[in-house]
Amino acid sequence: MKKNTIYLLFLLLSLGGVITSCKDDKVELVEAPVINLSEIGASNSKKVVVGSELHLEGDIIAVGLIAKIEIEIHQEAGNFKILKSYNDGPYIGVRNTLFHEHIDIPSDAPAGAYHLDFTVTDNVGNKTTVESELTLEKAFDITEHFVAGTLSPASGSYNSVYFIRLLEDNKAVFMGSGNDLVGEYELTSDSLLVTISDPNNYRTARFAINEKHELTSAYYRALSMVYKTTGVLLAINEQNQFVGKTFRGEEFKMGPASNKADWYYKFNATGSHYGAAERAAAAEPTNAFENINNSAFKFKNSAGGTELGFVSGDSLTVFRSQGLFYFGTYKLLQ
Questions:
Q1: pLDDT tens-digit map of 203-262
Q2: What are the tens digits of pLDDT across the range 163-182?
Q3: pLDDT value at 279 more than 70
């Protein structure tokens, strides 16, 4: 009986020691890091241009103190990755911080849809990841565009159409109703200057360009004559913009007076021929034209007449020289 009592007391003391030990060894849980990314790309656009920098900014709170920050940007459909990590510096070992960095985007990164993972690990081993979609946009290349617009003399008697092709090595080709003229261009962050230096055919065209690569103003001078000028910077299309389309509008002749209240331009199913008439049914597409960058055309007939036009949005702008000058802007028929 005495032995049983002693054994029971020993067992109770042992259990008490285990219970006390468990209480003493209890580890306090530390909250995982909290991340609030307020800017992914300029103005939180979630876009960045290839070859530039991605703006990243956000608040980080880590009770367990920041041990590491990792950034991974990977293609949604592909294997290209951009990795960046911070293991030392002002962000490490602190509880609260404002993260602000510019991440280099390599110039060889394929444009398209990407996914961004922003991960913070604390000193305890807790890890938090914030994810976001990200689009890498192709860098602007002026040689993948051309200028199209209209020129009008001070009298306002007509609006002729012109094109400027912008080639490699700053070579420019001016195209109008006459012969093509070769010159050069200079592009800055906010302007495009085109010069034809031939003293017998001197031309200068100057355009203001905004950050969206849109032309916001235009100036044109041929020899000593200054023209009222419009211009739009058009991307060189991969697909023919004339295929199977019909446009309708008012045609003018040598001034503001209407020549044809309704005038139609019809293009065939392959976008290689067009016709023009007062009725759509009569506009047989029999004229084979020179296709310029899939959104502009030039046609010369056997009688010496020339017709030029370009598509911008749902409009076709045309100028025809046939003894007299004819011009107009025509809307796409749906």
A1: 999 999 998 899 999 999 999 999 999 999 999 999 999 999 999 999 999 988 899 999
A2: 999 999 999 999 999 999 99
A3: yes
In a domain, 241, yes or no: no
Kindly state whether residues 48 and 128 are assigned to the same domain.
Answer: yes
> Do residue 208 and residue 162 come from a single domain?
yes
Q: Which domain holds residue 211?
A: 142-235
Count of other CB atoms within 10 angstroms of residue 176: 20
Q: Distance (Å, rounded) from C-alpha 26 to C-alpha 4? A: 34
Q: What's 207's domain CATH number?
A: 2.40.128
Claim to verify: residue 124 and residue 54 sit in the same structural domain? yes
Q: What pLDDT sits at residue 85?
A: 98
Task: Output the pTM of the full model.
Answer: 0.75
Q: Are residues 256 and 326 in the same domain?
A: yes
pLDDT tens, residue by residue, 312-322: 999 999 999 99
The residue among 190, 214, 235 that closes a domain is 235
End-of-domain residue from the set 185, 211, 235: 235
Identify the CA nearest to 234 among candidates 205, 210, 214, 256: 214
Split into its structural domains, the chain has a count of 3
